[in-house]
Amino acid sequence: MRTRKLLTTVGLLCALGSALSACKETEALKGLSSSDKAAQTQAQDPQGAACNTSETTLEPLTAPPENTPIFEQFNFQPHAIAVDKGVVTVKTNAYTFTFCQGDRTWSIASHPVETEAYDPDQYMANLANPEYDQVEVEGDRYEYRARLEANWLREQTGTSAQPSADSATSSPSSESTAEDTVYFELKTPDGKSLRQPLYTLSELKAANLGASLGVPSIVGSVATKEAIWFAATTTQGEGDSGFASLIRYSLKTGEITVQRPEEIQGDQITAIALTPNLETAAAPESTGESTSESTDESIDEPTGEPTGEPSAESTANITLWLGTQRSGEGNPYLPADGLIAYQPMTKTLQRYSITNSPLIGAIPTELAVSDDQLWVGTGNGICQIEWQSIDQAQGWDCWRFAFTAALPQAGIDLYASSQADQPAATLTEPEAEVLWANWKLADGAEDPDLPPKVTRYEVVYKPGFEVQLSQGGYKTSNSVARQFAGGEPVYWPGYTWHWAGDRFARSLDEVSQNHFGGGPYGLVKSNISTGPNLDQVAIRGDFDLLNLEANTTTVRHYSGWIPADGLQVYPSLIPTQSAPNKPNPLDQFIPDLPTSQGP
């Protein structure tokens, strides 16, 4: 049984506003440099200054198993963050990153990759009767899960419409019906089993979110003295979807209420954290976008009737922090709204994304709160945020994942594109920063789906290459065209890159890691497909936009491709710096682009 132990949040929330002195202890750190912060932190927390410096083993990146995309070795999405006695531990698929708050340094260690054998029968059984997660609050244990009851699932598993013996007991008013429905189920320490309908298939279709219910799950839970909050999400793809739901269980009354923030419907919630919403926190300015009030979909337990609002005492002084992403068929990680700060009482939210804040990645997958610090783990790096001053640049410290390979002393051939046959230059530097990996079809390979194939690394190349792409741009005039362009007002070859203040950049978790059609799509010279391996000039490299017309795009990209054979690539964490804030050159070309009704 999976277990998540939630520490009582008195310490995490500084007693939820009743003992603010603990929250204000680090006020003097705001606006200081990293070295000054380290000295101040060590003086205030000598215990946290002493970190384990024992030797660790760091292995290079390894190619993924057979029949796995070559770029999976760059999947560094964190799946656990822990903060304990001045030490922050961030775990990814193959590496553990440890931060010593005393001297503000990172160490990295390799660990075995965890894999699970796929059993189709067991998978279907788990869908019909998923395991419970656990949370401890004030020494009491609660068990919870989200559960899908659907006709197709009953047919495939041979189960009835009634809850199984292991599921929560349903009241007469919430018994299963023929309609596909998602439920939240909770077992309390006193032996009660509560069962709450979250939404139905007809509600999903009416909201135009999908054609079928995805598999639901509870991605996390947080608690105060008055309530436990749960974040429910769902799988997406091939028409499957669901409502992003925030579920509140009152520890005093046993009441369950549900909120579905309208602005993030269509998103998946990846993580949840909670902080007090202190009056001393800065008002939203340039880095966060305030949005209008969302709809309240509160449902009383167990009758299923709409309920009143949670009391002001229990919700007015908290903020729920949420990570968001989207996914589709073959695309497990797609950017959505970034980091969300949601106010349950006013039902308003703020977005902190890679384009409007210092956030280092597009998809936050793990969150953790320790005193006045919010730790955010993304697929592109890690941020330490003073959540009380999140709208000020000095409230952020971020580190990005970087990958380095030592190069041969004699130099190595550099190619201007992933499939180029002739080298364009020779790299003679001692090392190179590696951005991505792709297959190059070897000479004589007639079938692109069969070997021989060789691996090439995309690496940073500061002189860059100027190239004219055969694709141009157009303005998106309706919702269909804008959705195809990733929500942007213009579709062009670089729409999946973001303006980073001085160049267009693409973080690790902005790369659509589609597992079909040859993998991630970058900048290509021609729109003629030669098989699944397109001749890409850049997949993650930065570039300057030199010209954009209806049929062509001219860029200078600052990356090239080198043979991967014999090279060893090691990960690291690099502190980020504030980028220049230059005008986005795309703006000057938009007025002259044509308007299109669709892709």
UniProtKB/TrEMBL annotation:
Q: Where is the composition biased (Low complexity)?
A: 159-180, 281-293
Compositional bias (Acidic residues) at which positions? Answer: 294-303
Q: May I ask which residue range the UniProt record assigns to the signal sequence?
A: 1-21
Q: Does the keyword Signal belong to this entry? A: yes
Q: Which UniProt keywords apply?
A: Signal
Q: Where is this region: Disordered?
A: 33-52, 154-180, 281-313, 575-599
Mind telling me what this protein is named?
Answer: Uncharacterized protein
Origin organism is: Phormidesmis priestleyi
